[in-house]
Amino acid sequence: MWARIKNLVGEISKLRVDSNIFTVGSSPIYTLDSSKVNYRMARELYDNIHEGYKLGAWGAKPVINTIVGFMGLPDFTAVDESAQDVLDSFFLENQSQIQQTHKNAIRDGDCWVWITREELGGTLYPEQDYQLVYNIIPPEQIKQIVRDPLTGKPIEYIFEYWSEWVDEYGIKKRFKILDRIDAQRRITKFEDGQLPRNVVFEFGESKNPWGFIPIVQFSNNKETGAVYGKSELEPLEPFFKVYHAIMMSAIKGAKLHNTPRLKLRVKDVARFLQVNFGVDDPVKFASEGRTIKLEGKELILLTGSEEDAEFVEASSVLGDTKDLLKLIFYCIVDVSETPEFAFGTHTPSSHASVVEQMPVLTKKIERKRAQFEDSWKQLARIVLAMESKSTSVRFGSHAVSLTWEEVDPRDSKDVAQELSLVVEALEKAMRSSLISQKSAVDYLARYLETMDTYDGGEREGIIETKYFMSGLEDAGIMQSEIEVIDKTLGEMGVNQNGKRMS
What we know:
Blueprint: H1 2-9, E1 16-17, E2 23-24, E3 27-28, E4 36-37, H2 39-47, H3 60-71, E5 75-78, H4 84-93, H5 95-108, E6 110-121, E7 125-137, E8 142-147, E9 154-166, E10 172-182, E11 185-193, E12 204-207, E13 215-219, H6 237-257, E14 261-265, H7 269-277, H8 282-287, E15 308-312, H9 321-336, H10 354-390, E16 400-403, H11 412-431, H12 437-444, H13 454-492
Antiparallel strand pairs: 1-4, 2-3, 5-16, 6-7, 6-13, 8-9, 9-10, 10-11, 11-12, 14-15
């Protein structure tokens, strides 16, 4: 059976599990690809704690963190302006959760977010009665997702929770709870194990007050016909494995070759052994299995000019291994579309400068943002719908738009130099009557945010600054004139009041 599966799908990735393949006779039946990422292995690669990859999975974390870092956080703009405050408040409170969502989805292939409404108030939260909570669901807890056979959209989630607790005798015990939720109801029931005492659990069926499932799936690189996304580490896993194997081989060789070996060239072996080690009969000495120890033998006597002794050690343990590791490193760089400097490589030793490497990463970041946009818009709709149902406020629309911060590979020095060149060019164009001041301001607004409000405030600020600076210049001129007048009057023997000094 396993041979037939491998003939159908080829070699299955070690980061892929639960491939469901059904056959009737010798023909495979079309079904959605329900294979999912091996979440535990993906996290072990990310944290570099997998025993079979420790010397090669060092590149997993830079690949994931570079994408997450450059992606940043989206800004949400509501079509209904009255809903903007709700969006701003919710997503501002959950910025770290948003970043965690990006990281989990890119590392594990998928990340599920469940928005719940929790009652607050009391002594701890006197300022608010309830709160919309951003919950990231561990993917291992999702037992099954029932989907619409036509659209593929989830119509029911089934969760399986295992929890452990310790009784008063120090004995570990565990229990399992099954949780089902669809658009109309939620069912929670005890499945197995032993519940802890003095803890109240609410089991049974309850109505879903929202009329929809408040869960959103964020998928990375999900293809058409697939149920789950793909981890960013899947195409890199073979390279991590090979890198680890080569490093292990090199280390084992280092243990052998890094230990210096004594090389002796003697003419009379028997005499050499007698003089230096007191061995009278070398044949008997060898037949008895005895060995010679060099400990405490700082001085070795050689009796002839043709005799010599030296230590032999490998000049380069790695040898051609360095070139092979370098090749694998650049395979990781190319496949992951991650710049070399993200792995800590010194830029002058790289094959390309930072400026040359950034366009590839920029395009990748744009793709990642586009992959998650629909999910973020759906999550924002859920927030507005739950807020509307929880209060008497009704929004005309739950639609939102997303904006992202532009990915800028330049540092502050490059930005300042570019701005200086732009201002200088605009100044020359205005002096040559090639453009108007308004056109120059509109162009400069691309570089300075304050120029967007030029007519509404920046222009008046410039005029006030000019008046202030001109006043300082006039004051300086007047002070200089006063000093000249005082000097002239002094030479004439007249004081400032016009009276002749005695």
